[in-house]
Structures
1.
Amino acid sequence: VNFDHVLRLQDFEPFARDAMDPSAFDYFTGGAADEVTLRDNVAAFARRKLRPRVLVDVSGIDTRTTMLETPVAMPVALAPTAMDRLAHPDGEVAVSRAAARAGVLMHAATFSSCSLEEIATAAGGPRWFQLYVHQDRGLAEELVTRAAAAGYRAVVVTADLPVPGYRERELRSRFVVPDDARPGNYRDRAGVEEVLGYLTHNIDQSLTWSDIEWVRGLSELPVVVKGVLTAEDARLAVEHGAAGVVVSNHGGRQLDRAPASIDVLQEVVDELRGDIEVYLDGGVRRGSDVLIALALGARAVLLGRPYLWALAAGGEEGVARALELIRAELENSMALLGVTRPDQVNRAHVM
Ligand SMILES: Cc1cc2nc3c(=O)[nH]c(=O)nc-3n(C[C@H](O)[C@H](O)[C@H](O)COP(=O)(O)O)c2cc1C
């Protein structure tokens, strides 16, 4: 694929549409119900404006930062996404290689189509493991133990999926998981991988905040809670020993009518007052979106669909190109905002 005309992350989407099976594309792109939250994630960023400062020496831009003490090249990471082989036969292995080349943190998902060990072996970049807790708690114990052994540096518990959201595009296009995209983490467990339905419908709906302490006890790794949208839950995350939260509505795929993530970031940040790190995902498409999130107090943001489109369009090279684009946009926007490092971005930079 020739990426000459790909100038922004969203330019990958039509390539992905062409490359993918239509029902898999619907699974990637769609959100829950009327997709109000899905659309608002992007629209809410556009409603916000930056306050640029001029005549600042911006000759030495440095985008590096840390995420829970893990050094990363920029405050942009790759969100956990299930079954990346739907996009490209190389799946998460390609994502892992592109992320490592860019020095960017990636998440391996519980439902990744490559196993967490394959993802770790593919490249030595910074990586966190996303955990879904099943009724069979032994599965979570096993996954966390394996993730710690494979060099993952945090466990990210996804808290907003006690049940899958009502995703009508998937229902309409009768999406079924093809054999080669099935979750790779369970291959050795006979029976469990029979149908993906088993996995998604056996997520433990009785999971509560006290189980965050249980997850912490499974390894030495810090635990991050993904899917927090209120000050109340942010406080509970601290009380139960989380090292960070991801302000997220799961890319508009879970509760439709949940707020756009950027609209509740300030509420969460104000509650936490620096107690733990705050990340955000949902609708981040531009370098300027990254800066708006940083100005409102996020440590870093995660990209979801944009890198999946890039993966579908061009495998490892596609994801590498996507990361180059967002990095170039971020550097350009930082210079024009009048900052040289992520930690210089503050509330005064956003209206
Ligand atoms: C196809 C797809 C699969 C996803 N799978 C997971 C998953 O397995 N676990 C999880 O915590 N989040 C999952 N997410 C949510 C992402 O981690 C992230 O919250 C969201 O995509 C961010 O919004 P964006 O797509 O607008 O960037 C998935 C998102 C998409 C689009």
Note: The mean pLDDT is 95.
2.
Amino acid sequence: MMALAAPLKKMLIGRTFSTEKSRIKLFGEMDWTLEPSRGMAQLIQEPAEEVERRFKESGEDFLFRFGYENGKVITDELFKYLRGEDKKITQKTINDLLEFIGIGQLEFISTSTEKDGHHHVVVRMTNNPIIEHARKMYREKSMVCSFFRGIFTAHGEKYFDAKNFHLNEKKCMCKDPKISYCEWESRW
Ligand SMILES: [Zn+2]
């Protein structure tokens, strides 16, 4: 309870998030929508299964592209509204925001970057209820992680200022029942 309460309180008191006219706003401007996690798992998985059935295309590749394009829209909108001090996004800010919106936590295992865009980034996604529900519903057939890899690839590109950034899944909690995280890596 305490772990969730702290960032939540901070964002509400700091008016990072507010509600007005029955809408949830970030910085008083950007619209947000809260969705049930189990339903989200289905919303992500089913189009990928349909793509495989109809077009014989990899559902994971489809979800990665879809997540990447979605991540770019989200990142561009976020940066449009971030001002001054807020622009200095730290790993803690990212995790506070992720915790607040309920899509897990990122553990930064490796974050080495060079000025020319070369990098080695390894992150672990834990405590993501959408991935956890997908594991229960679809087990090793779950493709939802590819959607998140796509989103975080778009974010990572901008955050690390890295070239040829592409998160690949090294370990997956949907495919390996012994672990409780997914590990994603980008190296160039
Ligand atoms: Zn995974």
Note: Residues 30 and 68 are 20 Å apart (CA to CA).
